[in-house]
Amino acid sequence: MGLLAGLRNSISNLFSSGQKQRRIGIYGPPNAGKTTLANRIARDWTGDAVGPESHIPHETRRARRKEDIEIERNGKSVNIDIVDTPGVATKVDYEEFIEHDMEKDDAVRRSREATEGVAEAMHWLREDVDGVIYVLDSAEDPFTQVNTMLVGIIESQDLPVLIFANKIDLEDASIQRITNAFPQHETVPLSALEGENMDEVYEKIAEYFG
Amino acid sequence: MSEADDSSAGDADGSGVQLDMISGERMDQLASMEKIRLILDSVHDGNIVILEEGLDPEEESKLIEVTMTEISPDEFTGIEIETYPGSSKSSGGFFDRLMGRETETKLTVIGPANRLETLHKDETLISALVTRT
């Protein structure tokens, strides 16, 4: 956690009698498994889901918030709202959706909604979140410009951040590659789809955002 | 009108690819939105923009946001942008600014997504292909 964020938390705790509700944004590139993770967390602690999951990029095109999730681990508990955000990209081409057997009109509409969603996600990051879970696909190269820029933007906001190396159930997964890409942050391996290592996920959430 | 604006028709006959190399000194004189406008206007013209000192994280965030609002099917699909990954270690956070520590500068390449393709990138090398479309 950054020095400023820690200081801010300490001051906040001094003056608040109850537990503060923190808004945690789930960020990352398209298809990293952000919605699968949001659904896993929401189902484990509230029984509800957040939104539909898909292998087609930009399935999530609006930020979705799930409120009042209380996570308890090792005597620590944290009350959070999780915000599942659209995958961030610097380009959106409707032809990418046509390759997923979509009609042109649907593909164009999806791309328009996707661009609005990315802009919305950037706005949330600058204005409306208290911490970030940055989700990466462990089977993909983490050295991308979007990852570099987003982690830099998060750091510049002095927000506490956890890197989640998702999809460790895949054959090509490499946790070390992600650790090497962002050595300044703690990396937690998991498979949101299979529910692997969720105990550590919840421990870290309670520790970082509690 | 800026010199970069004047040169927007540099590839009018489609015979080449125009590079706009913008110094840190020139960018320092501009407000954030002026920087973003300068970059995107050039990229809309099909040019490749090379920034000597790059953008700060908040400007990068706004660049993504404004780019998204300008994407149009069959006309503009967005931008390709590259800097070295190590730049994320230099956050330019509050205490850095308070203590007068400058954000690390980073050479940045920006182009239209349909003309600039990154072939390879690691901590020390960016290899990109520029096409004439």
UniProtKB/TrEMBL annotation, chain A:
Where does the source fall among the domains of life? Archaea
**CDD domains assigned to the protein according to its UniProt record, in alphabetical order:** Era_like
- Give the GO terms filed under biological process for this record: tRNA methylation; tRNA wobble uridine modification
Protein name listed in UniProt? GTP-binding protein
One GO CC term on file: cytoplasm
Q: Which InterPro entries does the entry mention?
A: GTP-bd, P-loop_NTPase, Small_GTP-bd
Q: Where is the signal peptide?
A: none
Q: Where is the G domain?
A: 23-167
Q: Which organism is it from?
A: Halococcus morrhuae DSM 1307
Instruction: Provide any one GO MF term from the record.
Output: GTP binding
TrEMBL record, chain B:
Which superkingdom?
A: Archaea
Q: What is this protein called?
A: DUF2073 domain-containing protein
